[in-house]
Amino acid sequence: MGSKSMMKWPNKITPALVERLISSEKNLDKAISIFDAATAEYSNGFRHDQSTFGLMIGRLLSANKFVPAEDMLVRMKREKCDVTEDIFLSIYRAYGRVHKPLEVVRVFGKMKEFECEPTAKSYVTVLSTLVDESHLKMAFRFYRYMKEKELPASVASLNVLIKALCKNSETMDSALQIFREMPKHGHTPDSYTYGTLINGLCRGGRTLEAKELFKEMEVKGCSPSVITYSCLIHGLCQSNKLHDAMELFKEMKCKGVEPNVYTYSSVIDGLCKNGHSLQALELFERMIRKSLVPNSITYSSLIHGLCKELKICEAVQIFDRMKLQDLKPDAGLYSKVINGYCEMSKFQEAANFLDEMVLSGITPNRVTWGLHVRVHNRVIRGLCSVGNANQAFQLYLGLRSRGISVEATTFESLIHCVCMRGDLHKAARIMDEMVSDGCNPDVGTWDAMLNGFWDRRKVREAAELLLDKLMDELQNSISI
User: Where does the pLDDT of residue 460 fall: very low under 50, low under 70, confident under 90, or very high at 90 and above?
Assistant: First the structure.
């Protein structure tokens, strides 16, 4: 940061004025210029204080400018300006936002260098960041360090510890044990405690216990949030308890808790998995009317459900709406629609959708390789089954050019199809490539090739003449 002032200041410049000017400037570079211009007034008696330093550090952190922000801390110490815990907390949250928990721990370790004594708020923030980023071993070590420091437990710290234990099914019972012991130590579980436990139980498939805890929560006067309702509804849907999930969905609306995108997506997924895709479609439309924007999970669940019930027209409409929302369908979604068309023997439409998938830039990777192989081969075999040899062959060429494996049954279907069309040059080429790929043609494939050549008039005439000649020679040898 420079020091040359290009601003005209009033006779008396105050930190409040500088703070107001920086706050009103949306552009970070210009905000820095204001800060530097104020620094240039040090010779006139002005000094930055906690408010201006804190504001500038906050602006830098919002732009992920972590190094300049930490340099500001050093400058504050050099200028003998007290660094408050709130400034450190803003740094912890900024590093947590970009998923850098180790940086949070590092900065926490520097607090004493700046003569800033951490309170429970700092300890809990660091612990929470470690848990949120699933650095559980370090989180448990940090919690033990908190106990060594004789930091008194609080509902906030116990909630974070319970959250850490809920992340692993093997430690779920330990989380419940701490929860049950909280009142004995003067700590009353709050809505966050209950919500965390319900979420953990549902993830582990323990929905009966989650439902009991949900009832207890209401009895104890803790109002479930939309997140708690959504977690339980999702858990019930995953456990095939659709009726219970739907009852809870109705209940939350009666109690004035508005479902969010996650809630709707969970119910839509549950309906689709239980063969109620049209009901799921109605719920989807209701969600849109409430100005909730569907996400990829919502679209994926609905498209899978519609394709499963062979409601392909509806699935394609939802597919198109997904693309209009600038959400890119993946290979899995394309394959669902393509397989749906194949199930209905609409192989031309399946081939068109396959072409669209390729043109959209979706290519095989280690995860989707098998899926690409299966769907491409199925479409080629389908086209062959309806006698569309030309398109099947073009699709086959494209498949080979992209290095996607051709299955033996696909080779056989192609050879049969092109032989029936009399295109023996293509058939011979496919046969050669089949053998070079290590696939052995079966008897039926050889028969198709031989019958194809036999149906050629010249080949048949030559064979008949050869047969007549052989018969004559045989008769002559017998008469001798």
Answer: low
Q: What is each CA distance from 85 to 50, 116, 118, 120, in whole angstroms?
A: 11, 7, 7, 11
For the beta carbon of residue 170, count every other beta carbon within 10 angstroms. 8
Under 8 Å between Cβ of 128 and 160: yes
- The rounded distance, in Å, linking the Cα atoms of 439 and 253 is 60
For the segment 130-140, what is each residue's pLDDT rounded down to a tens digit? Answer: 999 999 999 99
Q: What CA–CA distance (Å, rounded) separates 106 from 22? A: 29
Q: Is 80 left (phi over 0), alpha (psi -120 to 50) or beta?
A: left
* Mean pLDDT, residues 435-461: 72
Q: Are 90 and 58 in contact (CB under 8 A)?
A: yes
Model pLDDT, residue 263: 96
Task: Tell me the C-alpha distance between 96 and 88, whole Å.
Answer: 12
Question: What is the H or E stretch that residue 187 is in?
Answer: none
Confidence of residue 209 (pLDDT cuts 50, 70, 90): very high
Beta-carbon contacts of 318 under 8 Å, excluding residues fewer than 6 positions away, are 281, 284, 299, 302, 303, 306
Q: Which two tokens stand for residue 320?
A: 């198109």
186: left (phi over 0), alpha (psi -120 to 50) or beta: left
Q: Please tell me the pTM assigned to this model.
A: 0.79
pLDDT, the chain, mean: 90
The pLDDT tens digits of the residues spanning 96-111 come to 999 999 999 999 999 9
pLDDT at position 4: 47
Amino acid symbol at 85: E
Spatial neighbors of 206 by CB under 8 A, at least 6 apart, are 172
Could you tell me which of 430, 323, 337 has the C-alpha nearest to residue 379? 337
Long-range contacts of 202-207, Cβ-Cβ distance < 8 Å, separation of 24 or more: 202/231, 202/232, 202/234, 202/235, 202/236, 202/238, 203/166, 203/169, 203/235, 204/169, 204/172, 205/235, 205/238, 205/239, 206/172, 207/232, 207/235, 207/236, 207/239, 207/241, 207/244
DSSP annotation of 439 reads P
- Give the confidence band of 2 by pLDDT, cuts at 50, 70, 90: very low
User: Quick one: average pLDDT of 160-180?
Assistant: 94
Angle, vertex CA 152, rays to CA 200 and CA 128, nearest 5: 40
Q: How many residues does the chain have?
A: 480
Determine the Cα–Cα distance for residues 207 and 237; give it in Å rounded to an integer. 10
The average pLDDT across 423-441 equals 86
